[in-house]
Amino acid sequence: MQTESTSTPSLSEVHSSVEIPRQPSFWRRFFAFSGPAYLISVGYMDPGNWATDIAAGSKFGYRLLWVLVMSNLMAILLQSLSARLGIVTGMDLAQACRSMFSRRVSWALWILAEVAIAACDLAEVLGSAIGLQLLFGMPLLVAVFVTALDTFVLLLLHHRGVRLMEAFILTLVLTIGICLAIEVFLSKPHWGQMAGGLVPSLPGEGALFLAIGILGATVMPHNLYLHSALVQSRRVQHTPAGIRASIRFNTIDSF
Q1: Count of alpha carbons within 13 Å of 230, Cβ hemisphere only?
Q2: pLDDT (tens digit per residue) in 204-221
């Protein structure tokens, strides 16, 4: 094990770029800290999540709902721990791994992370392209190029400031939330069966594989790297009280 530290800040272009008000007002400080979790939440709404959840619902109804709840609780725990890492140490998860592990282990972790990101991106691009094809009748290849183009739009927003990016992503997340609320209202779910689905069970053949798929699609490793870096975009006081306040507000943000 090695403890070599890094002097390069995470996401240097936005590092400590968001001023935190010194006023004791809870809501002013809360809104100043809010934002990183909005960006992280996108990772929990990807095509892989939709596909596994739809497959589980169409085959087993509400009976695997407990897996979804458990997976989200695990994700909240891991994201809050990731945020704490970035706040307390001033390093993101990748930098912490590089500091604590040998070069060989660090290279292995990097390769695994790259493979995981590439596999996740494949589902993201194909899912977005299929969505554009269904909505607008685009040829699939054209839809893939449009999907790639919107990535550069997000990168442009990122260079205009992290708060602008957070506001844009929040708008998209709210749109998805409103659409989901409308769908729930129209579908009229059976609340009794939903409550029964919170009791752990594996109702039939293939349930275990779908449960593993839901867990794998919900707990996103790349989100842990990103969250530990994004929390450092806030300019906090590096005092015990300032760090405790940052941990408290970012934990609330993670929920």
Answers
A1: 28
A2: 888 898 888 888 878 777
Calpha distance 204→26 (Å, rounded) = 49
197 and 64 in contact (C-beta within 8 Å)?
Answer: yes
Q: Of 79 and 30, which is predicted with more confidence? A: 79
Short-list 124, 88, 97, CA closest to 220: 124
Q: Is residue 173 situated within a structural domain?
A: yes
Surface-to-core class of residue 215, CB atoms within 10 Å of its CB (0-12 exposed, 13-18 middle, 19+ buried): middle
Encode pLDDT of 113-153 as tens digits. Answer: 888 888 878 878 888 888 889 888 889 889 888 888 887 88
Which is higher by pLDDT, 3 or 53?
53
Helix (H) / strand (E) element for 18: namely strand 18-19
Query: Which value, to the nearest 10 degrees, does the dihedral of the CA atoms of residues 115, 39, 124, 71 take?
Result: 80
The answer to whether residue 192 is domain-embedded is yes
Q: How many domains does the chain have?
A: 1
- Amino acid identity of 197? G
Distance CA 27, CA 32 (A): 8
Alpha carbon separation from 247 to 10, 30, 90, 166, 244 (Å, rounded): 18, 11, 13, 19, 5
39's tokens: 């960006």
Q: Which domain holds residue 188?
A: 23-254
Q: Locate all alpha helices (DSSP H) within 1-139, ordered by sequence.
A: 26-33, 36-41, 47-60, 65-89, 93-100, 103-136
The pLDDT > 90 percentage for the chain reads 4
